[in-house]
Amino acid sequence: MTEPLEKRLEKAMAELQAAQEAVARTERELRQASFAVLSSDRAVRATVGPQGELTGIEFLDNKYRDMSPQELAASVLEAASAARLKMNRHVMKAMAPFTEPSAHVPELKGFELDWERIFGPDVLREDDEDTARDDRATPAWRDALGDDGED
After folding, report:
1. What does the pLDDT look like over 28-44, one tens digit per residue?
2. For a surface tag, which of 32, 58, 79, 122 has the fewest beta carbons within 10 Å of its beta carbon?
3. Which residue, among 78, 80, 70, has the nearest Cα to 46 in the 3D structure?
4. Could you give the CA distance from residue 78 to residue 81 in angstroms, rounded to a whole number?
């Protein structure tokens, strides 16, 4: 015997309200997110904000003094791109639950997002660094102390 329509509607409304609250929490969290990444030569740390915008560049240990302009530019671009990629992946993971079908309301099938089209193909590639390290945003206080979270 199927559930009465009123009961199914009540469940759907409760799930919709829970989803709206979860989306609002996720949006608040994403507005505060930032990622800082070191270049592979450890000369530059780039920080990006919630929309992938560059919010900070640090030149570490005066290494830039021994670099050519091209090397320095490459380090800056590498770190900024890697930080932006981390932010894109963070957004993707945070939003993934909202794309899945409903467990309680079979009529709500979920939807698919083309993350590659939104963020570019790199966002779907698995990165050894991402799987080896914790993928949470770097707290601002750690950036202020100069601790990049690496051992």
Report:
1. 999 999 999 999 999 99
2. 32
3. 80
4. 5
Mean pLDDT of 33-57: 96
Dist. CA 38–CA 56, nearest whole Å: 12
Handedness of CA 130, 132, 133, 135 (dihedral sign): positive
Beta bridge partners of 44: 59
Structure tokens at 93: 């993971």
Higher pLDDT, 78 or 17: 78
Are residues 89 and 126 in contact, defined by beta-carbon separation less than 8 angstroms?
A: no
The DSSP line for 61-119 is: TTGGGGS-HHHHHHHHHHHHHHHHHHHHHHHHHHHGGGGSPPSS-TT-------HHHHH
